[in-house]
Amino acid sequence: MALVNLVTSLLATSIIFIVLGFWAATSGHACVEKGVSKLMKLIDKGVLPQDAKPPENILLQPPLDYLDWISSLPRHLQDQVVHFSPSCSIKEQKEKFMEGPGLAFAAFSQVVSLFPASSLWAILFFLMLAVTELSTLIRILEGIVVPSQNSIFRNYPQLLSVVCLGGFLGSFVFTSRPGSYIMSLFDDRLVPLTLITIVAFQNVALAWIYGAKRFREEISSELGHFLWSFFTFLLCYVTLPGLLALLIICLIQLYQRVPPYYIAWNSSVTQEVKQPYPQNTLGWVTFLSILTLLPIPVHPLYQWWHLQDHIASERFEKPLSKKMPLAPIKHFAWPKHRLVKSNFKMQEGNSESSLKVFSLTLDKGPDVVPLRQSNLPSIVSTKTGVSKFFLQRTG
């Protein structure tokens, strides 16, 4: 499984870099086409003079020739062309959508539209996103529903439906008008901190409380062969320090002096600007992060509380369990004469059954009817000395 995950990660990483390389190679020419088209419209409207008209063969030249043409213009025309032309800097374009969900939805969509047979690649890209998100969703549901049903909600078989319905209704927040900003806020502020904290607690519970060696032995028994002995060292002394370092970095970025911001479109200046998040939004994010981490201390307290109730109930019921016998136990008096040894060499099942039946009837006292007539044939059929003796005593 680890090898499959490694190969999948390497394959996905290589595809991402191939696509981004294709985008970097083609984005310059697309930006030049956009800039030339905008300049021609401004010249037709009379905003720019005819001297600002690009050369006719500029689209057939490399993007660097377009920059050289802008540099050759007079100073006043150069400032006007630069002001009205879109920025073709790869660094500035990368900052717009190369982080978070923009990498999957903006960058890849733009690159796929430039591929040959773009319709086919768009369908494959959509199917890839659907399969990836469904697999992630199934893993999240398994991590939530299975432990909850095994520990707390054992009598609620509809828990899976409730969780799916809650997730579906909660997803409408991200499809609203400010949904992209909320998703970016969750991706930057909420998810990294809570995810690293939960994984760090899991590592502590598994490696230091449950025991890394015992966990390694159980995994080895399931696989049928021993794991690498260095596995326990990695689990105890490498994974946890790495998680703690990531947690410290997240806390530093979360509580740094620079206020968190998001990129929004400002229609008054017709460009994207950085806007700080409102304080109430950050308060909601803090509340949701605490709510997400709340099951970590709540579940041990829940188990401890029920354990204390169980111990208290056992202490309360312990004196009541000591009941005195209602009647004294009567011991059976064996005969004084010796029994013949050959009589005891019969089958053990018949003799044991007869002993159980008659010992129960004799212990009940003389007022109880000793035997039923239906039991006599099976007892007489044994023809043992013990059975004959019992028949004489009870007859």
Automatic annotation (TrEMBL):
UniProt GO BP: amino acid transport; sodium ion transmembrane transport
In which compartments does the protein localize?
Answer: Membrane
Give the SUPFAM superfamilies listed for this entry. Answer: SNF-like
Entry's transmembrane regions: 119-138, 159-178, 190-210, 230-255, 282-302
Keywords from UniProt, A to Z, are:
Membrane, Transmembrane, Transmembrane helix, Transport
One CC-aspect GO term: plasma membrane
Stated membrane topology is:
Multi-pass membrane protein
Q: Does the keyword Nucleus apply?
A: no
Give one Pfam hit by family name. Answer: SNF
Q: Which InterPro entries match?
A: Na/ntran_symport, SNS_sf
Reply yes or no: does the keyword Transport apply.
yes
Chief place where the protein resides = membrane
This protein is called Uncharacterized protein
This chain's source organism reads Equus asinus asinus
Q: What are the top taxonomic ranks of the organism? A: Eukaryota, Metazoa, Chordata, Craniata, Vertebrata
